[in-house]
Each structure stands twice: as C-alpha cells, then as structure tokens.
Design brief:
The complex is a heterodimer. By secondary structure, chain A is an alpha+beta fold. Chain A has 13 helices and 13 strands. Chain A starts with a helix and ends in a 5-residue tail after the last strand. In chain B, the strands form 8 sheets. Chain B has a 5-stranded mixed sheet with strand order 1-27-28-29-30, with no helix packed on it. Chain B has a 4-stranded antiparallel sheet with strand order 2-33-32-31, with no helix packed on it. Chain B has a 4-stranded antiparallel sheet with strand order 3-4-5-6, with no helix packed on it. Classes of the chains: A alpha+beta, B mainly beta. Chains A and B meet through helix 2 and helix 4 of A and strand 6, strand 9 and strand 10 of B.
C-alpha cells in the first residue's frame, strides 16, 4: 500500500468517524430536546425551557421527525401538544423544500406498537405527500389499534358500501356492511352500519354490538337537596347488598329494583323506572362477568352528576347538570378482572325547575381503547 | 439603504409588529369600533372580495389581524378534537403556517357552538389562541410555539358542556381569561411570555360566555350573571365590582367613562377613581335579544335583537330608533366610519348609515353560514364562515 493510499484510507476513516460522532451528537441533541419538552408540567411549569428546546428541535429539521413521533404517547396529552406542532413546523418547511421523505413516515405508520395519535399524524402527512395513501394503507387498518386510523378505514369501506347501493348491488352492500360489525368502535359509524343493514332487513342488536350494559339494579332517592349528596357516601358506596332495605331521603324505606333497558344505546331513564325526584341521588349497579382479565374503557353518557366505581375503585366523577348527554361523553379506564366485576354508578339530580332540566338518565358501555365492545355477560341478582 | 428606509417607514406606520389593527373579539379592546374611514360597503359572493380562503373547519371565532398577518382558529375532525391555528398573509390570504393541537378537554357542546368559539388575541408579535376545550397556545408570528397550557389538565373539574366561548383579552403583558364554568371556575391573568398564572380569581360555579373588555382606565371589565368586576390586569386586584343580574352571553360595552352592562335591561354605571363601587346612572332599554353584544358609539348604544337593530341614547337609555332586519344574528355588530355592520347567520350583512334615523345602505349577501363577528383592518372587512374566510376589500 503506497503512502498516499494509506493517507487516503486514514482520512476516509477519520471523516467516517467524525460523521458518525456528529450524527450521534445530533441524535443525542434531538433526544435531549424532546426530553426537555416532555418535562412540561401543570400550570405552565417548564414552559420557558420547553420553548427554547422547541425552537432548537425544529431547527434540527427532518431528522427529528421520527424521534418526535416516537416520543408522542397517548397518555401524555400536554407534552403531545408541544411535540405535534414541532413535527408540523418541520414537516411544513420540508414539504415546501420538497425534502419530506415518505418512507420513514410510512414505516412509522406500519408500526402498530407506536402511539395511535402519532401514527395518525404521520399518516396525515403521508396523505399530503401522496393522495393515493388512503387507498394503499386504509384497507389493512380495519382492525388498527389507533381509533383515528380505524375510523378512517371504516369510513372508506362505508363509502364503498354507499357506492354499491348507488349501483343497486344490494348483496355487495350488505356483505360490506356486515364485515364491519366485528371491528367498528365508533358508535356513530355503528349507527350508520345499523341503518344501512336495516334497509336490507338485517336487524342488529346495537346495544350488544356496542357493549352497552343494559341490565342494572337501581335504588333511589337518597338526599341531594341543595347539592348535599354528592360528597355523602350513602350505603351503596360502602357495600352492595341487593336484599337490603335502605332509608330514602325523606326517611322512607327504599329497595333495589332490577331493570333492563331496551334502548339501543343503553339509556336508563331513572324518572321512568324509579319515579321523578329532584334533589336526589340514585345508584345503579351492574355485575359484569368477563372471560379474562383485561384493560377496558367505561364510556358513559349522563345528563346529571355522575360518579363511576369499578370494583370499588372510583374511576370517574363529574358534577354537571343538564348540559347534554351523548354516547361516549365520558371515558374512564380500568381493569376488568376475570369473573364477575361490579360497576357502581351514582347519578345525581339537582333541583332546577326549568322544563329542560328534568331529565335523569345515563348510559354506559364497556369497550377497548378503540371503542369496540369487549366480551362480557351480565349477571343479574337472581343469577347471583 | 432602500430596505432600511422601507423598514423604518413600516415601523413608523406600525405595520411591522407594532400595529394592533383588530387584536381580539370585537377588536383589540372589545369596543367593536374601528377608526377606519375608508371601508367597502357593497359586496356579494362574486364581487367586492379581495380574496376568499378555504378553512379546515368551523369556528365562531373572528379572525384577528396585526402586523400584516391574519390569525384565526378552527376545529375539525371526529367530535371536533382537532384544533387549528392558522396564519395568513393579510394582503393576499396566502397561508403562511398552520399548527394543530389535540383537544385535551371535553368537546361536548350545543350544536350551535363549536370548539373554535373563543376568538384569539394578538399584539402582532404573537397570537394567543384559546379553544372551548381549555387548550391555550401561544405562537409567535412565524408559528413557533412559545407556550401551551391545557387548562382542563391543570384544573380537571373545568367543564362547560354547552360549550365555552369566552374569548381572552390581551392587555399589556397579560392574557386575561374568563374560565367560568360548573367546575373550577375562575378568572385568570397569564404572563404572555411564559403562560404562567400571574393571578387567579375564584368565581361562582356557573357557566358564562361573556368576554372582558378593556376600559379607558386600563382596567379589564369582566361580567357574569351576578357581578361586573373591574380588575387591574397586572396584579389581579379587583378595583371595583357591582352586584346585579347581568347577561351571561352578550358582553358589556363602554365609552367616555361610562360602562354599559347588558342584562334584562341595559344598566349604565360610572366608575369613580378610588371607589370600589361605580355610580349607577340609569337602567332601561333593551339592546340585546340573543347572542350579540351592544356597541357604544358617539353617545349612543347600538344592539341587535333577533330581528332589529336598536339605538339607545347613552345619556338616559331611551330608545331613539329601531330598524327591522332579518336575523338571527350569532355574531355581534361592529361600527366603522359611522356605519354599522351586522351579519346574520345566513351571511347577509346589513350596512346601516347611522344618524338621527338609520339608513340601510346595503344588504350584502354571500349566502354562507356565518356565526362570527366581522373584523376590520386596513381598509378591509373580514367575514368568517363555517368554510371560508372572506376578505371584503379592493384587490
């Protein structure tokens, strides 16, 4: 090897090492900037440092995109709202300069272990780069763990079903809608599917498909005049004894009654089932048998104050009255044990007198984090 | 040298950073009055528009304009969980940047409202965008994130499922917020540089949609169903308050040292230096009948009921005239060059020449759903619909 060749090899090695070291430093820099941003806390704690890091992170350019996506976590909404705009600022500039590479984003979207919201963000930018992205990616996302991507995938199939209907191909339309039933998580999309199938004479049990709890044991009224009952732990919060006779808000004896709602969205109307009371608390308890231990979401709708306990643990509380009720209005996460689980609700009715402030009702369903029903069966007092 | 001259001229004319042409809901201070003297008064969906820009989603918020840029908010996506802040070039409407956030609070609300109900505020250097979800983001004019707060994350019981709509007000270095709701209910002043609380005042746990205004004294006036409260924005000190039964939707107005509080009737009060309670001047007259807020202008108070523009004397509340118009109006009226502009929900703008008697000088129909209050800046009127931003002005 000549002297010049040796010098050349040495130089090349040095440059390579410098390059690797530089890349490593850049990676470290991106990682530490993201870490700084992710430290933001309540009431603006860490905002100043995060703002400096944010600007520096954006200056790192496209190489920071995948690390940003990877740092997004579905359980860190505040940090995500710092990271998402950083991604956008970089991607926006990269698109303008035609430097946004699709491949790393596509690879990230394919990785279902990553946060659903991050994958959906990457997907949205892939669509900006290539309008054929939905047709390429969505067909394989009908069971995607990202609620957002699954919703898009189902929406695409629903459009296909509409096209079949327009072309008078009822067989294909019906088959298309039916294949969505096991995967749908969004109640509004389920509604569309149910209405579509209904036109073909197919009746589905919407409450069951969506995972609504339809059988409850109810008891009321406990005292909630002047709002006093919200923080009072009445006997059902201490122990569930369906055979017990308890004392109502005016001293009257009250007992649990069993009730099964026929509502397609699991609505339990307490005014109808228990009688109309104002300034009153009702309790509702359901016994849910799960074939396995699993994490679930309890998704409720309620037009009154609502507390939810799962197996004795308070998982949700919101005291708000007569401001609307929607399917999936509230979400609470918890664990279903294998076997029988207890879901207890406290439904508080206030004393407003206006016509629009008289409803006293709730609904609750059990589903996975995407919104699709999980397997369970309801155990009644009698069967217990 | 030429560039330097342009920069100096621009600075002198206030077009770089210093301008505050229309910095919030009903303008920078909330007066709803512009000093513009040359504004268009006739247009249609095909004529008189400088540009029309497609928007990514709904919004009740009006655009804010300063430093040659327009900022506006929108919401979109599943249950309106996607929150947008957009920045456009004022002259052309070209989008300069967009930043998106994910709702961290509830998106439940009455169908008439949406998550982009509060109007952002700007001083030309930064924009502060609050959403009905309690998400609040501060971005500089180039779209760099200065800070972000999840107010529902900070105060988890904050809730208004009819839909929060109070807009912030920027006064000096403080972003003033009305977060009055059924949970953790409060007024707050946030440091505009850091987003941290400078002060926080507890309020009754009742929902309230009014937006504060800035008084000539520099105090910020908040109004809820029980109290009008004048606060020093720097310290959060309450300078005066007046108990009463005030509106929770139309916001107050003020002029020449007098404050006009909408309720079942309008009440005029005069704050006194050093007094913790204002003098009550008169009560009477109805200038509101829906969502629109009244406007003080040259000794008169103007308001919108569901089907009329009403003019009251500011000296005693007597009704001077009433002009029938076709509502309903979601947005509030604005005044410039002695003309009142009122846009109904179907995109029809009434332009009324003000005087002893009103004269409707134009009915401009763009046939679009408009819930936002118009904005006025640099010779143009901005109308924001569910789908578009219209810039009415010469090309």
């Amino acid at each position: 090897m000549s002297r010049w060749v040796r010098v050349g090899v040495l130089l090349a090695l040095t440059v390579s090492l410098l390059f690797v070291a530089s890349a490593s430093r850049a990676e470290d820099s991106v990682t530490s900037l993201i870490a700084q941003i992710s430290k933001v806390g309540r009431e603006g704690v860490g905002n100043e440092q995060a703002a400096v890091a944010w600007k520096a992170l954006v200056q790192q350019g496209p190489k920071a995109l995948v690390p940003i996506l990877t740092a997004i976590r579905d359980d860190a909404p505040v940090a995500n709202n710092w990271l998402r705009p950083a991604f956008e600022a970089i991607a926006e500039k990269a698109v303008a300069e035609e430097k946004l590479a699709a491949e790393p984003l596509a690879k990230f979207v394919d990785d279902t272990m990553q946060a659903g919201s991050a994958r959906a963000l990457a997907y949205a930018w892939l669509v900006k780069l290539d309008k054929s992205t939905p047709d390429r990616l969505l067909p394989k996302m009908l069971q995607d763990p990202s609620a957002e991507l699954r919703r898009l995938a189902i929406a695409r199939v629903l459009r296909q079903a509409e096209t079949f209907v327009e072309n008078n191909d009822d067989v294909a339309a019906k088959a298309t809608l039916e294949k969505l039933l096991p995967v749908v998580g969004d109640p509004e999309q389920l509604d569309t599917i149910a209405k579509g199938l209904d036109k073909f004479g197919v009746k589905i049990d919407r409450a069951k498909v969506a995972g609504f709890v339809t059988t409850w044991h109810l008891i009321a009224p406990f005292d909630h005049r002047k709002g006093i009952g919200w923080d009072v732990a009445y006997p059902p919060e201490k122990a569930i004894d369906l055979a017990a006779t308890l004392q109502g808000k005016e001293g009257q004896p009250i007992r649990w009654i069993a009730h099964t709602t026929k509502s397609a969205t699991g609505v339990v109307d307490l005014n109808q089932t228990l009688g109309k009371f104002k300034g009153a608390i009702a309790y509702a308890v359901a016994f849910v048998e799960s074939p396995e231990e699993r994490q679930v979401e309890l998704r409720a709708g309620c037009i009154n104050g609502l507390k939810i306990w799962l197996n004795g643990k308070l998982v949700f509380a919101n005291e708000e009255y007569h401001h609307g009720m929607n399917v999936d209005q509230y979400k609470a996460r918890g664990k279903l044990n294998k076997g029988v689980n207890t879901i207890l609700l406290k439904v508080a009715q206030n004393e407003q007198t206006e016509n629009w402030a008289q409803e006293w009702q709730f609904q609750l369903r059990i589903c996975d984090f995407v919104g699709a029903a999980v397997p369970f069966s309801l155990v009644t007092k009698e069967s217990k | 040298m030429k560039t330097i001259r342009i920069v100096i001229l621009a600075l002198l004319s206030g077009s770089i950073g210093l301008a505050e042409e229309w910095g919030g809901f009903r303008g920078t201070t909330g007066s709803a009055v512009s000093n513009e003297t040359s504004l268009p008064f006739k247009w249609s969906k095909d004529e008189g528009l400088r540009y029309k820009v497609a928007l990514p989603g709904r919004g009740l918020s009006n655009p804010v304009i300063a430093g040659g840029r327009i900022y506006l908010t929108a919401c979109s996506g599943y249950r309106e969980t996607r929150l947008h802040v957009l920045c456009l070039e004022e002259q052309t409407g070209k989008q300069l940047w967009e930043r998106q956030f994910t709702a961290t609070g509830s998106t439940a609300c009455h169908p008439v409202s949406n998550m982009a109900a509060p109007t952002p505020v700007t001083d030309g250097k930064a924009v502060y965008a609050l959403f009905a979800t309690g998400d609040l983001a501060a971005l500089d004019r180039d779209g760099n994130l200065l800070w972000y707060r999840s107010l529902v994350g900070d105060y988890p019981t904050v809730s208004n499922q009819v839909g929060m709509a109070s807009s912030p007000r920027l006064v000096g270095n403080i972003v003033c917020l009305t977060m009055e709701n059924v949970g953790d209910s409060f007024l707050a002043g946030l440091d505009k540089k850091t987003g941290k609380n400078r002060w926080k005042i507890p309020r009754p746990r009742e929902i309230n949609w009014t937006t504060p205004i800035v008084l000539d004294s520099g105090l910020v006036l908040f109004q809820n169903g029980q109290e009008a409260t004048a606060v020093d924005p720097e310290t959060g000190t309450v300078r005066w308050r007046l108990k009463g039964s005030w509106s929770t939707i139309p916001s107050p107005t003020a002029g020449e040292g007098v404050v006009y509080l909408p309720g079942q009737q309008l009440k005029a009060v005069k704050p006194r230096q050093g007094s913790d309670q204002p003098d009550e001047l008169w009560e009477g007259g109805v200038v509101t009948g829906g969502y629109a807020s009244p406007v003080y202008h040259r000794g008169r108070i103007y308001g919108l009921t569901k089907n009329a523009v009403v003019c009251l004397s500011a000296s005693d509340g007597s009704e001077l005239w009433r002009e029938r118009v076709n509502g309903p109006f979601d947005g509030s009226p604005v005044i410039a060059n002695n003309k009142l502009y009122a846009v109904n929900g179907k995109g029809l703008t009434y332009v009324i020449e003000l005087g002893e008697k009103p004269t409707i000088i134009a009915r401009n129909d763009i046939a679009d759903t408009i819930q936002a209050t118009p904005a006025i800046a640099n010779g143009c009127i901005y109308l924001r619909s569910d789908k578009y931003l219209y810039c009415v002005g010469p090309k």
